Amino acid sequence: MNKVLNLYAGIGGNRKLWDNVEVTAIEINPTIAKIYQDFFPNDKIIITDAHQYLLEHFEEYDFIWSSPPCSTHSSFAKLRSLSDDYGRGNYCYKPKYPDMKLYEEILLLNHLFKGKFCVENVIGYYEPLIKPQKIQRHYFWANFFINKIKIESDNIKEGRIKEWEKKIGFNLEEKKIDKKVILRNCVEPKLGLHILDCAFRDSNIINYNKQLILI
Quick check: 5 and 57 in contact, CB under 8 A? Predict the structure, then answer.
C-alpha cells in the first residue's frame, strides 16, 4: 500500500475519494484537524507546521500532496492591496510579499524527492516562476503528467454553502468554522482522485521531473 503525505490537509477535499492508500495528514489548526479526523478516522493526522514536517519527513512517503497557503499569490491579494478602501483605512488590506514557501517546496520535491508529488495553488496574479500545469482554478506542479479532466466549474462565488457541501460531499452543519472559507479551500474530490490516479499509473507515465523549469 502506497504511503501518502497530505500537507495543509484542511478538511480533506482532495483526499475524499482516495482509496487503498495509507495517508498521513498534516494540519496546523486543531479545530480543522479534528474535523478532518472525524471524516477520515483511519488516517494518521498530525497537528504541526506542514512546511517544516515536509523538510524533515519527505523521504518516508511514496506520494506527496501539498497545498500551501495561497492568499499572497492570488489575484484577489493584488486587488486588495491596490484598493482605494485600503487608503481610506476602511480595511486592513496591506501589500504583502508573496510567500515563497510555495517555491521552496516545489524545488525541494523536484530535486530531492524520489517519489511522485503534486503541489497545488491558486492561479496567481503574476507569471509563475516555475511552470505549472493548469486545471480549473488551480496551478499544479508535479513530476508526472496530469491528463485534462472535465469537471463541473467550481467557482465558490456561485451558489450557497449548502450547495457546496453537497457538491464536495461534506456536511459541516454542526461545525463551528467559517464554512465558506473552508469549502473554498477544498480541491474538488474528483480532481484530487484524478491526480492521484495519474501519479500511480503504469511505467509508461510521462515523467515531468526535468520539465519543471525556471521561466
Answer: yes
Q: Which domains does the chain have, with CATH numbers?
A: 2-152+187-211 (3.40.50)
Q: Is a pLDDT exceeding 50 seen at residue 136?
A: yes
pLDDT of residue 117: 98
DSSP 28: S
Report the pLDDT value the prediction gives residue 76, as an integer from 0 to 100. Answer: 64
* Distance (Å, whole) CA 180 – CA 112: 36
* Dist. CA 145–CA 134, nearest whole Å: 11
- pLDDT of 157 higher than 70: no
Cite the DSSP H helix spans in 99-140: 101-112
Pairing of strands 116-122, 63-66: parallel
Cell numbers for 92, please give them: 486592513
Q: From 44, 47, 43, select the one nearest 32 (Cα to Cα).
A: 47
Q: Is 118 buried (19+), middle (13-18) or exposed (0-12) by CB count in 10 A?
A: buried
